UniProtKB/TrEMBL annotation:
Matching CDD domains: DLP_2
TM ranges: none
Entry keyword set: Coiled coil
Descriptive protein name: Dynamin N-terminal domain-containing protein
Length: 600
């Protein structure tokens, strides 16, 4: 597969339009500062920085020992991350661009520590940091790779399905933060049930998933064809993917080719073909979305600036007494709007609280229902496993309860979260409609002076909790002075200890389920609360922008009205020149918008 000429042209167009858009944002910000509108200038500079950063989280996922870390090293062209024969990576590692290699450990308490490459295995491997005893949140590696430029962040995760449960936890809790995924399979062993289950879980989080069939250098051409057909069939039938595309690849050969500079090894590895597919996705889908959003915001800011310029020009030709009266009308309209907005906010908070009560009730019903199911399962195992000793019975029941609990929660929590967000968006959308109608009314009432430029809330942003949700399954009680009754009972004959074991395991099953339901309740409550707070702050900012910029423009006009005639002529000429510059910028922005829409 080669990079077609049309694709090269398309990528160049995206890059050229992005550079032109950055220039327009810079010109708009400078003009806003000239017109004494620092708030608008800051907003435009923030949009330019977002466009420059262009951060995109691409997470590498898969079962343990599928070659994820070797694959990432191959992409970077250097042995940066440690690899080994045994399952190794145990901590999420973020790779992003930096002028020099720099590694920083971020701990769960927020502390950080810079380390050398030789120290890295001591923090991100199971051997160096067993069960994450060092309380590492993640490790950030900055490296001067062209692959990491333009905001791409590659993320290495522990393999799921290893013997280390904490490794699975580290991977699962990072899922909500990814924008797209690279999922590694291998030719031997083939795709497993655990991998198809994991793929079902990541589907709600990844806008796009790239599949790699790794270790193809172990097969001949016929074997590779069979492995590809088998994996595609399993992905279609079990994960319900429509015509999944797999890229055959050898991460080992790719890394060797990069390090040795052998183009022959690189082509044989299959890495260049995958690289082109990934870059096409990043340029087309991600690039288009980012550019469209930035152009829309730039045009909105330009419209606001233009209205303020028009207002000042109009005010220069309005008698002073009439201008003062119209300012008074505007102030009264704004005060009425603020009062009504406070009433709407009070109603919003009430509906949010009602949603949280409904969510809590749903969690309570789920907890009660699943507790009964777990207790029935414990009774069933106790009755059926009559040949087991007390110790074997306890272990069998604990394993079954842990597996069942995780299955219950893993299937239910995403659905509950989706439904809670849907209801939240319905509430906020109703509130948005009321607010926009209110702002439109103020605009009409003040139309004889100016139009108030306030953006609508076209999209809602759901803010994640400060920490990703993770479940706690199968944790053992461990305190210095606590005597675990199970450790005593399992040493007794089963006819004596059986009833006590069953009763204790039922209690623990209920406690474990209750604890995880509590975590889910806290996670969703925080998510909704943060979203509503951000929404209210955004609204306040927009109302403040609608009034502050306009008030300052009117006050400048009043000051000029009291100046000499030559000063008024100079001010008018300055305003007309600024309006001319603004027209040129708007024309450029509309051209960029048209260019983006015509790139196919």
């Amino acid at each position: 597969m080669c990079l077609k000429k049309g694709m090269v042209i398309k990528m160049n167009h995206f890059r050229a339009n992005g550079e032109e858009l950055l220039a327009c944002l810079g010109e708009l910000a400078a003009l806003a500062r000239e017109r004494q509108q620092p708030g608008l200038a800051n907003y435009l500079e923030q949009q330019a920085q977002k466009l420059r950063d262009n951060r995109f989280h691409l997470v590498v996922l898969g079962a343990f020992k599928r070659g994820k870390t070797t694959f990432l090293n191959a992409l970077l062209g250097q042995d940066i991350l440690p690899t080994a024969v045994v399952p190794l990576t145990s901590i999420v590692t973020l790779l992003e661009y930096g002028e020099h290699l720099h590694i920083q450990v971020v701990f769960k308490d927020g502390a950080t520590r810079s380390i050398s490459p030789e120290e890295l295995p001591g923090y991100i491997t199971e051997e160096g940091n067993p069960k994450n005893e060092k309380n590492v949140r993640h490790v950030q590696v900055k490296y001067p790779s062209d692959y990491l430029k333009d905001g791409l962040v590659l993320i290495d995760t522990p393999g799921v399905g290893s013997i280390y449960q904490n490794n699975d936890d580290e991977t699962y809790q990072y899922l909500p933060q990814m924008d797209a995924a690279i999922f590694l399979l291998t030719v031997d062993p083939p795709i497993s049930q655990a991998e198809t289950d994991f793929l079902e879980r990541i589907k709600p989080y990844a806008a796009r998933t790239f599949f790699i069939l790794n270790k193809i250098d172990y097969l001949d051409e016929q074997g590779l064809r069979q492995a590809l057909e088998f994996s595609r069939r399993v992905l279609a039938e079990r994960v319900h993917l429509d015509r999944p595309v797999l890229c055959p690849l050898s991460a080992r050969l790719a890394l060797q080719g990069k390090i040795s500079g052998s183009q022959e090894l690189l082509e044989k590895s299959g890495l260049p073909q995958f690289d082109r597919s990934l870059r096409q996705f990043l340029m087309e889908e991600k690039g288009r979305a980012i550019l469209e959003a930035a152009v829309t915001k730039a045009l909105g800011a330009a419209a606001e600036l233009q209205l303020h310029l028009s207002l000042e020009l109009k005010a220069l030709h309005t008698p002073l007494q009439e201008l003062v009266e119209k300012i008074g009308q505007f102030d009264r309209a704004l005060e009425e709007m603020r009062q009504e907005q406070q009433d709407h906010t009070f109603i919003l908070e009430g509906e949010i609280n009602k949603l949280l009560r409904e969510t809590e009730a749903a969690i309570g019903s789920f907890r009660e229902e699943k507790t009964r199911e777990l207790q029935r399962e414990i009774d069933r195992l106790n009755e059926e496993k009559t040949n087991l000793s007390a110790r074997e019975l306890a272990e069998t029941i604990k394993q079954a309860v842990n597996e069942q609990t995780e299955k219950f929660l893993s299937a239910w929590q995403p659905e509950l979260e989706k439904e809670t967000i849907r209801k939240y968006e319905q509430i906020v959308n109703r509130f948005v409609a009321k607010t926009n109608r209110l702002l439109d009314d103020v605009v009409r009432r003040a139309a004889e002076i100016f139009a108030i430029p306030v953006e609508g809330f076209s999209k809602l942003e759901i803010v994640p909790g400060k920490d990703p949700l993770f479940l706690s399954i199968g944790e053992e009680i461990s305190t210095m002075f606590y005597v675990d009754p199970m450790k005593v009972q399992v040493m007794l004959p089963r006819f004596l200890s059986g009833p006590v074991i069953v009763r204790e395991l039922k209690r623990r099953a209920e406690e474990q389920l209750d604890k995880n339901c509590g975590r889910i309740r806290h996670y969703l409550a925080e998510k909704v609360w943060l979203s509503s707070q951000q929404f209210k702050l955004s609204l306040e900012d927009k109302i403040r922008a609608a009034s502050q910029g306009t008030r300052e423009a009117l006050e400048r006009a009043v000051t000029l009205k009291q100046a000499s005639e030559p000063e008024v002529r100079v001010a008018a000429a300055t305003l007309e020149e600024a309006a001319r510059k603004l027209d040129e910028i708007k024309h450029k922005l509309l051209t960029i918008k048209e260019n983006i829409n015509t790139i196919t």
